[in-house]
Every structure is written in structure tokens, then in C-alpha cells.
Amino acid sequence: xxxxxxxxxxxxxxxxxxxxxxxxxxxxxxxxxxxxxxxxxxxxxxxxxxxxxxxxxxxxxxxxxxxxxxxxxxxxxxxxxxxxxxxxxxxxxxxxxxxxxxxxxxxxxxxxxxxxxxxxxxxxxxxxxxxxxxxxxxxxxxxxxxxxxxxxxxxxxxxxxxxxxxxxxxxxxxxxxxxxxxxxxxxxxxxxxxx
Length: 195
Hints:
The model is unreliable at 1-12, 14-19 and 21-28 (pLDDT under 50). 33% of the residues are buried. Helix 3 links the parallel strand 4 (59-64) and strand 5. The protein has helices at 30-36, 42-54, 71-81, 94-99, 111-119, 136-142, 161-166, 182-193, and strands spanning 6-11, 20-25, 39-40, 59-64, 86-92, 126-130, 146-150, 170-174. The strands form two sheets. Strands 3-6-5-4-7-8 form a six-stranded parallel beta sheet, sandwiched between helices. The protein has one domain: HUPs (Rossmann fold), CATH 3.40.50.620. By secondary structure, it is an alpha/beta fold. It starts with 5 loop residues before the first strand and ends with a helix.
């Protein structure tokens, strides 16, 4: 019996905090390769996006930790994608999540896995990791046409708003799914463990 070999696929992340490495079976769907091709560096996107703009594509950007992906995330990302043609998701690196004081033991899921799970979603066109505590510089560099955040953000508090609006872009918020969050999931799991 022939056993498929395992192939390593590595995507670059310039932070020096590691590379995204994924293992999958050789001979698996070419969709796996295209999914991993969605994970880009900021420098990659700065080369790709001007070409997409000349093709008349509207670029949408959002960001977050996306630690435990849930229905609220999926609905939010689909709604964000519907505001344009190309959705870029900025993902906080592990160090960035820890700096945000999201709670003890966060992130639960390492950055490489969080990026890959997001890249698997049809509504997500590109995923980019960032080390900073906020995506302000990333947004300024990528120059999206639409900046999207969850409804828990007041428009005037959205990081990157000024640089997007200065270029003629727009900023939008999307209502959150009630009672659904990564923090509530983590709390529920911890309660159930201590029963």
C-alpha cells in the first residue's frame, strides 16, 4: 500500500518571530496550495494591491486576533468581503496578542494556525500577520478603500480611519453577533473543565 508523503510548505513572515510552516499530504488538492498562497507579507501585498487597483478592484481591510474562530467571526468576515472585491485580514501575531492583554494563556491558537484557518475561508482573499499592537502602519501602507471593524468600535476610535479617509476611502462597522466572542468561549470551556 502506497502511503502519501508529507510535504512542508513555508510562508514567510518578516517579523523574525518565526515562519508559517504547514505540513500536508503530497497529492492533496491543489486548493491547499492556493489556500496557503493567500498568506502574504506586507511587502508582498504592497506589490499585489496596486495591480488589483488598476483592475478596478475595491480593497477591503479588517484585522483582529481571530484566536478561536466562531460564527461571529465568519459572519463578520463575509459581511466585510461583501463591501468590496478583495478582503485582506490583518492578524495579530502571538506577541501582539500577548501585548494586548487578552487574558492569561492567549492566544490559544498559534499565529500560523490562525492565519491558515482564515486563509481557508472563501470570503478571505489575503491574510497578513502584524507584530505591532495596532494595525495603523499596516493600514497606512496597504491603503485599503474600505476599513471595517466590529460594531463594538466607535468610528472615531477605529485605528487607521484617518489614513483611509484621507485617501477618499470609507470606514464601516459591522454589528456583532450577540453573546458570541472568543472570550466567552474560553470562559465557558474553563467553567466546564472545573465542574
